Structure formats: structure tokens, C-alpha cells
Amino acid sequence: MKTINFKNNIRKTSLYLGLAGLLIIPSACDESFLDTDPQGKQAGTIFWQNEGDATKAVNAMYANLRSWNNTAFAPIAVESIGSDDAEKGSIASDAPFFNDYDTFKIGSTDGQLGGFWQGQYQNINYANQVIGNIPAIAMDETLKARYIAEAKFVRAYSHFRLVRAFGDVPLRMAVPKDATEYNIPRTPKAEVYAAIEQDLAEAAAVLPQSYGAADLGRVTKGAALSLHAKVAMYQAKWQQVFDLTSQVISSGQYKLFPQYEALFRVPNENSTESIFEIQNELIQSNKDASNSQYSQVQGVRGVVGGGWGFNVPTKALADAFETGDPRRDATIIFRGETTPSGDAIPAVGDNPMYNQKSYVPLSMFVNGFNEGAQQNVRVIRYAEVLLMNAEAANELGNATQALASLELVRARARGTLKNVLPKVTLTEKTALRNAIWHERHVELAMEFDRYFDVIRQGRAAEIFGPKGWTANKNEVWPVPQTEIDLSGGTLTQNPGY
Fold first, then answer.
1. Is 38's pLDDT higher than 70?
2. What range does the domain containing 184 cover?
3. Is position 229 within any domain?
4. 144 inside domain
5. Shortest CA distance to 280 belongs to which of 267, 294, 268?
6. How many CB atoms lie within 10 A of CB 49?
7. How crowded is residue 456: how many other Cβ atoms within 10 Å of its Cβ?
């Protein structure tokens, strides 16, 4: 089901990016951003006056989540290519820097590092503007509290993406008041995690369980609880993970979508399985607002309506699925196949495989627009909540609950097929842990989690070592050199870079 009002509101991003009240504050001390001419923009002195301004600011915050640095090349580099599931794709001469992420030879000057860093701090700045300015507006108090809670989720989401990518990072909990606050050092990651957890706990206490159709796609209580569980999982806080995921499960708000492949198609966005998605849209009357390139950069190269062909699945991923697992074909577009949507993929082309989860049927292409501009980005799904619940239960010694949650995910994948994906019956903790990790691998493949999953599991040297991954260095990426330079050395580099 596609949203109408909410998406139509967030499509107007470009009208608000230049607001003086929504300036993007750099993480370092450069003040050149002050020398901008907000021509055609609503002046900051008359913004933040009423409920309409608050709504515009919150919608602009959501809209920035779909920007290039949040969903295209930068996250592909930082969150995907390093894993064993994905490699550069496209043609050899196009964007060769991706190969340095794949072989762990990337240096601190690569632009994708800076793009990812900037994209997250832009999100955080939008959120901080909302959190800092909306309290003073005379408006409906319930809506005010909800908007602030939505912003706390976004701030936590971006801080989480930063801390798992770079380790210690500057913790931005407010818009700088003056030049003395522009340039702050890296905060120890434990403190960053604590701030993320506080934001998510406070957001969950306010956010509604669900919305009406006009606001479908906004952050819910379930989204805050689920992201909180994921943050706790990265810190091995297993009781907390179990309690939070159990709360989401018992809420009754979510259920697995029956057909795995169809789950990722445009008509089934914001489905019963969706906990949080970045909302994208193709609006023929507004080309500038139809700006998502998430699907475009990963689409099948060499066909009209396809895309650029980056971030392609590997043979290792194709081989990771159990025999007969339908998720293999639902995750990977193979050369020479005909997709469930009826697209005949040429047998000859630049790459043997493409990401099917970002795929938009070729018939939906509109000439003059980005391929797949209407494809939402699935950020958190109910299947992941079940797998987090299973992993936590196993770590706490509750194999019965772990097997029950695990089986729900496998049963959906199995569908009506016989003799595939048999029930897991292992109860020994290590064996069951490995089974849950395998399920997480194949269920969430190509969804930008595998790389950091393997690191948190302590298996990176084993799995990524043959590609060049080195312990005590590659657990994190280098801090962008541009940020260190702008900070005058206040920001420091990660060891080994």
C-alpha cells in the first residue's frame, strides 16, 4: 500500500533544505556554510512560528533520509561492499574506488567516507533543529511531543550508523549555539551508544503504535523498540534485546508478509512486516522531488528501466542458501532469468547477478526519471525482530523460544514447498547460535547489515580475512580526512589508517 499525504508532504524537501533554521552544520569548525544566500527560502527569523512550520521541518527531516549520501554510493561503500555478500559490479572502469572497500585498502581520503559521514550528520542536524525549536511553538501538545519523538528516532538511527562504522564519533545532541561548539572531539562509543539508547527509549514512550493512511511511513513505537533492540544487540545486552523484541512481538502490530519476494515490490511497501522504511516516490509532476537513487544505482545494467549495476551479489552469497530456499531467487536476479514480474533479463551482460531486493519492474520506469525512484528502502522488518529475539533467547539459555522465533522466519520462507528448509531442532547453544546466524545471513542478505553483523559476531577475520580484513584495524573504517582537516586536528584518526 502506498502512502498519499505523508509522501506528498515530504516530496517538497527542496523547499526547506535552505531554511536558515535547517542549515546543515558541519561536524568540524568550518564556518563557510554561513556565507549562503537563502534566495527563495523562508527566512529563519520567521520560521519556527507555528504548527505548519513544525510539520515542514519534520517532513524535511524525513525527506533527507532518502538523499544520495544516505541511500546510494556512500552506504554501499561503508555498509555493504566490505561484506562477503556484495562486490562492486558495473564495469571495471566505473567507480573503481569500490574495490578498495572490498579489499580493505581504502584510505581516509576517499569521498564516500566523507559522504556517509556528512549524510548522517545532516540527518542529526535536522533532528536537532526539530528537537530544539518545536518546544517553543504554540501548537497541539500531543503532536508536538510526537514530532520530537520522531526526531529522536532519526537522531538515534544516524548516530547508530556512525558508531558502528567509525567507532568513537562526535555526539551531536543539539545545534551549536556559537562557533565554540562547532568543533567537538570524538565521543567514546560507549557514551554514543548510551545516548542512542536514551533517545530511543524516550521516543518509544511517546510514539503511537500505528498511524492512519495519511501518515503511513512515519516512525512508530515499534520502530523505536526494534531499533533499540538492534542497538542493544551490538552491545551484547541479551536480556535487553529479548525484552524489547518480546514487546514488539506481543504488541500484535506486525506479522510476516506471506510472500518473501513480493515483500520487496513497490505495491507492498509499508506492509504488515514493515517496521520502518525510508519513503520514496516517483511524482510525475515534480521531477526534482522524485530524487531517490537507491534502486537506480543497483538496478540491472544494460536494460531500459534497469540501472547502473553496482553493489551486486557474490557467488559466495548465492552458495550460502540451502538447497531449494526460495529466498535465493528472491534476493538475486540472475542473468538469463525471467523475474516474477515478467522481465526477461538478457543472458549476456556486464554482471552475472544483481540485487533483486532493490529491483523495480522495468514496466514501472518513467522516461526522464531515475530508474526505480519509487522504491522504498526497507530499514527494519519484523523478520529481523524475530531473529534478534531468537538470538537473544539462545544466548540466555532459552532454546525453546529461540527455536520458535527462528521457525517463524523459516516457515514463511518455506511457504507451501515440501522438503525444503526443515525445522531446526538443535538445542546446544553454539550449534543453535550458528543456525540463527545463518538464518540472519540469508534472510537479510543485501540489506546492508551483513558486514557489521560478521564483525559483531567476532568472525570477521575468518570470513573477511581472505579479502584483506585485518584485526585491530578493520573493525571500523577510517575517519574522513576532510573532517580531521576541518577540525584542525581535534578529530583523530582510527588506528592503522
1. no
2. 1-207+460-497
3. no
4. yes
5. 294
6. 15
7. 14
Q: Answer yes or no: are the C-beta atoms of 274 and 378 closer than 8 Å.
A: yes
Domain total of the chain: 1
The whole-number pLDDT of residue 149 equals: 98
Does residue 24 form part of some domain?
Answer: yes
What nine digits make up the cell of 206? Answer: 511517546
Q: What is the pLDDT of residues 156-203, one digit of tens each?
A: 999 999 999 999 999 999 999 998 899 999 999 999 999 999 999 999
Other Cβ atoms within 10 Å of 90 Cβ, number:
20
Burial bucket for residue 338 (CB in 10 Å: 0-12, 13-18, 19+) = exposed
Residue 113 exposure: Cα atoms within 13 Å on the Cβ side: 20
Mean pLDDT over residues 348-360, rounded? 97
The whole-model pTM stands at 0.93
**What are the grid coordinates assigned to 327, written together?**
529466498
- Contact assessment for residue 271 and residue 257, using Cβ atoms and an 8 Å cutoff: yes
When the pLDDT of each residue in the chain is averaged and rounded to a whole number, the result is 92
| pLDDT level of residue 8 (50, 70, 90 thresholds) | low
> Which triple of cell numbers denotes residue 443?
534472510
The closest of 5, 4, 128, 116 to 57, measured between CA atoms, is 128
Alpha-carbon dihedral angle through residues 35, 41, 47, 48, given to the nearest 10 degrees: -90
Ramachandran assignment for 31, one of left (phi > 0), alpha (psi -120 to 50 degrees), beta (any other) = alpha
pLDDT in tens, 453-493: 999 999 999 999 999 999 999 999 999 999 999 999 999 99
- Give strand pairing partners of 354: 333
Output the pLDDT for position 5. Answer: 55
Greatest alpha-carbon span in the chain: 66
* CA 117/CA 75 separation, integer angstroms: 10
d(CA 9, CA 432): 46
CATH of the domain at 104: 1.25.40.390
- Separation of alpha carbons 68 and 126, rounded Å: 16
pLDDT one-digit tens code per residue, 245-299: 999 999 999 999 999 999 999 999 999 999 999 999 999 999 888 999 999 999 9
CA separation for the pair 234, 386 (Å, rounded): 16
Answer for the pair 452, 161: CB distance below 8 angstroms, yes or no. no
SS3 213: helix
Extended strands (E) in 32-169: 86-89
Domain presence at residue 388: no
